[in-house]
Amino acid sequence: MLRTLAALLLSSSLGMAEEKPKQLVMISFDGAGSNPLWERSRTIAKRVNARFTYFLSCTLVIDRARAKTYQAPGQRPGKSNIGFAQTKEEALTRLDHVWQAKQEGHEIASHTCGHFDGRHWTKADWQMEMRNFRSILSSAWADLGAPEKEPSGWRDFVKNDIKGFRAPYLSTSDALEDAEHAEGFTYDGSGISMGPMLPEKQNKVLMFGLPLIPEGPERRNIIAMDYNLFIRHSAGVENPSRSAEFEERAYAAFRAAFDRQYAGERIPLQLGFHFVEMNGGAYWRAMERLATEVCAKPDVACVTYGEAIRQLSERGKETPSTL
Predict the structure, then answer these.
(1) How far apart are CA 195 and CA 101, in angstroms?
(2) CA–CA gap between residue 234 and residue 71 (Å, rounded)
């Protein structure tokens, strides 16, 4: 009798587990500059069966000698808040990483070009910067003096496959949303939400928000992004002597946020990073630990934003008017 009851309970629990959708985790990188970190991120992904979204800044595929070929709205030619590639060789290596990442199933999205705060930009200003992005990226191989290295299909990829956008400084506006739709972007990853939430459609663009998650001894909410942790932990000043401590705090926050969704509603979890090893690499190591532990689980998928949109659409009942 007890065996029969246990079997029934086990069967019931398995049935309930099967009803839960996969837990989606979206790990993204802003800027996508450092070539060593391109290599590192792609290696991580292969090891843990993950696919990442890279929000690329296009001045990083312009060599410094040609900096003045780029001009942002309201800025002088050659001005960029994140600089340019130092050499043509550096830029070409970065372009190769972009293409190889695409071939490996990762997603390339736009983080504009010069990383300016566009909160007061008009729709026309945003469109100018978005068109700069596609134009510069499209002709990048030729402009760097290596047209023979340009992969077949590169220009079609730039024109048609880059569908995601994240605004620098997460500065959004109605003008930005209007420009995104006009320029062919289908989703935006610039928002901030009170915890993990499903995306919502605004002006025909799907809006995602990086969640606020509890962090630290006092469990105060913070945007799930490395830069925000860097500011909280060390006021934006490098403190490598406490790197292990900061890694543990970041990892604990990421893991708790994951566990809460994994055991609960399984709303997609978004985590944002930069191609900078802040506080001695604490936040990248925390990300690697989390990805290693969760991405290979059979009921977890560490995916791009584009793949998350596809999977959410297939769920139907969980995406009423959002998709």
Answers:
(1) 29
(2) 34
Distance, CA of 287 to CA of 247 (rounded, Å) = 9
Q: Which long-range contacts (CB under 8 A, 24 or more apart) does 89-96 make?
A: 90/35, 90/63, 91/60, 91/61, 91/62, 91/63, 91/140, 91/144, 92/141, 92/144, 92/146, 92/149, 93/35, 94/32, 94/33, 94/35, 94/38, 94/60, 94/61, 95/61, 95/140, 95/141, 95/144, 96/149
Residues in the chain predicted with pLDDT less than 50, given as ranges, are 1-17, 317-322
| Domain ranges (residues) in the chain | 22-315
What is the assigned CATH class of domain 22-315? Answer: alpha beta
Q: Which residues of 264-279 are buried (b: 16+ CB within 10 A; e: fewer)?
A: eebbbbbbbbbbbbbb
- Token readout for 90 is 């550096």
One-character DSSP codes across 60-87: GGSBGGGGGG---TTS-TT--TT--BSS
- Residue 51 confidence (pLDDT): 98
- Give the pTM: 0.92
Residues 6 or more apart whose CB falls under 8 angstroms from that of 194 comprise: 211, 212
Question: Nearest Cα to 25, choosing from 313, 302, 310, 304?
Answer: 302
- Long-range CB contact pairs, 17-22, < 8 A, 24+: 17/299, 20/266, 20/299, 21/266, 21/311, 21/315, 21/318, 22/266, 22/299, 22/300, 22/301, 22/311
Give the pLDDT confidence of 184-242 residue by residue, as tens digits.
999 999 999 999 999 999 989 999 999 999 999 999 999 999 999 999 999 999 999 99
DSSP lists the bridge partners of residue 187 as: 164, 206
Question: Residue 107: helix, strand or coil by DSSP?
Answer: strand
Residue 89's CB: how many other CB atoms inside 10 A? 13
